[in-house]
Structures are given as C-alpha cells and as structure tokens.
C-alpha cells in the first residue's frame, strides 16, 4: 500500500505547505491527482467504459472534473453528476473547463445505476460526520447497483483517521489515494470499503513528503 500514513490534519497541512513553502498551487496538485486517477482507471480497464463520475461540493469533486477531462480525451464515454452548491476556487475552475468542453452534466440527484464504472468523487478525507440527503441515498443506491467503483482518495462516508464508516459509506473495488495511505487504512476492517488501495503521487515536493514518513 504505502510505507507511511497520513491523518486528516496532515493531509490539510501537506496541501497548505506545498503552496506556502514551495509555491505549488493547489490547482496543480488537483490536476496531477485527477490525471493519476484517470490513468489508473484506464489501466484497470484497457477497454473504454461507460463511466459516471459523481462529484461532490468540495475539492474531491474538483478531482472528478479533472478525471472526466482526461477520460474524455482518451475516448471514454463520461457523464458528470454534480452536487449543487459552492465550489472551492480550484474545483470551480475545473468545473468551468468541463462545462466549456460540453461534457454531459447532470444534477447528482438524477444519477441512476446504468452499468459501467462509477467514480466516487463525492467527499474526501475532510469528512467527519455522516452523509446527509441526498448523498446517503446515493451511496445506498451505489451499493445496490453492483457496479464497480473507483473511490477518489477515500470512499465517501469512511472516516479518514479511524477507517470506520460514519454512516452510509461507498464500497469501492479500488481506491486511488493521494500521496500516502490514510491513517484509517491501518484498520483491517477498512478494506471492506476501500477495496484495493493504489497510492497516486500528486507532485508534492519529495522533501515535503519525506517529512511525514516518520
């Protein structure tokens, strides 16, 4: 998996320090994260697949927009299902890009099982409470769909630090997690939710990352 783990607080701190100490903008990290996830999905499925990308209201959703752009470039059929509400600046920029590209966009509440892959870009490591409506209902629908799921950074609904569900939680076949495995992944029961974990580099400086290995 990885040789060290990051807590929720360390994830936030690493992103902040990458920008403040090294001048690496958050949007660069988001681009690298999304591209890495798209490349992983294409390795898992050499044949182009119908893919639904479920994007939440934070930076996890922003990763989903980047994933969609890269999959579309490689000929995949992608539909974005987007949560309403405020988007952080980097996520908003990537939302504007996929909008200008004319990629199919629908409200998250319109998602229904359709076959093919589901990309869970709803909520990331910052989640610390159970999912409310409509996300709890969507997660339950994902579970009953039988479709394979790639979770982005962490399955939505799973606590980053404990590896325990906070309520309804996505069960992923694969999880693409950034920089390092998350602290909660040390909990053996987390595997039920994460599936196989793949660590994706996002371009954070090595010196910075190495400081978290102890």
Automatic annotation (TrEMBL):
UniProt superkingdom: Bacteria
E.C. no: 5.1.99.6
Free-text cofactor note: Binds 1 potassium ion per subunit.
Entry's Gene Ontology molecular function annotations: metal ion binding; NAD(P)HX epimerase activity; nucleotide binding
Gene: nnrE
Organism: Limnoglobus roseus
Co-factor(s): K(+)
Record family assignment: Belongs to the NnrE/AIBP family.
Binding locations of K(+): 60, 120, 156
Root EC class: isomerase
Signal peptide limits: none
PROSITE patterns (UniProt xref): YJEF_N
Functional description taken from the UniProt entry: Catalyzes the epimerization of the S- and R-forms of NAD(P)HX, a damaged form of NAD(P)H that is a result of enzymatic or heat-dependent hydration. This is a prerequisite for the S-specific NAD(P)H-hydrate dehydratase to allow the repair of both epimers of NAD(P)HX.
Domain YjeF N-terminal per the UniProt entry, residue ranges: 11-210
Name of the molecule in the record: NAD(P)H-hydrate epimerase
Keyword hit for Cell wall biogenesis/degradation: no
